[in-house]
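#struct-pred
JK: can someone run the complex with zinc ion? inputs below
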Amino acid sequence: MRLGIDIGGSKIAAALIDESGSIIQQIRRPSDRSADSKQFISLLFETVNTLCPKRSQISFCGVGYPGSISGQGHIISSPNLPMLIGLPLKNELEKLLSVAVAVDNDANCAALAELKFGALQNAGQAILLTLGTGIGGGIICNGELYRGVSGTAGEVGHMIIHPNGRPCSCGNKGCWEKYASAKALTALLRKQAMADPNSILWQIACGNIKNIGAHCTEAALKKDDQAAVIALEEYLEELSTGISNLCCLFDPQIIAIGGGLSALYPYFAQKLQTLVKQKVYSGDAWQGKLIKARFGNNAGLIGAAFLS
Ligand SMILES: [Zn+2]
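RT: done, structure tokens with the ligand placed:
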């Protein structure tokens, strides 16, 4: 049995996973942003203990982390959990769990899950995008995960698409994820709701604009709400710009859309495909396709368990 751990900015998930990639048992806990690295490791250990008190059945433990990881399993960058920068996560967990541990970026783990068992199976050149609070990316090159020289390849959310644009948590301005993440969609929905008091979105807000989030999009689109339609169109302009840049760079066979926003995929698939075709350098010559990823929010957990 394999153990997969997915660390997020606000939660920790751990699961026992069999050799076919199926989740046998899973546990989710809120993570603690105020914890120091020692307390964080204790929280991880407790979570694993609750899931699986008899660790002798675990053959390997993989961890997906929302940041950049060195080849030795040290945390290099960590925008959501900055207190963990420098933590030798692999070594610490190996000491505690007495099992081989590997750590990688969470989007890389998600791409690995899709490559082994999901939407990217048998793909030589492919990209997984995770559209959530930010944008993560995992790049498959010649059938393998491409990590780059320092392990930070695939940080596509931080490609700058608007020079001197919105400030990003990474310290730069104009990063793609500031325009095409779920947070960015939320901002567009709120803007359109405020501009149209007769909209379904405004009704959903019930007088408080903060009630509107990306999760409201589907309900509004189902009722053909024009405010939601316009917000989604603006969002897709930004999303397609980044994707077409990736197509110019990698000419992939498949780009799979994962993460929380992939739930909206049926509503935007066709429009996104059209926009990408318009913007990509090779236009109709680009033979690749956009598809929805298979594992949604469980992809990081499953892929982590197969890092080795
Ligand atoms: Zn950035």
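RT: quick notes.
Residues 158, 168, 170, 172, 175 surround zinc ion (CB under 6 Å).
DSSP finds ten helices and twelve strands in the chain.
JK: thanks, will look after standup
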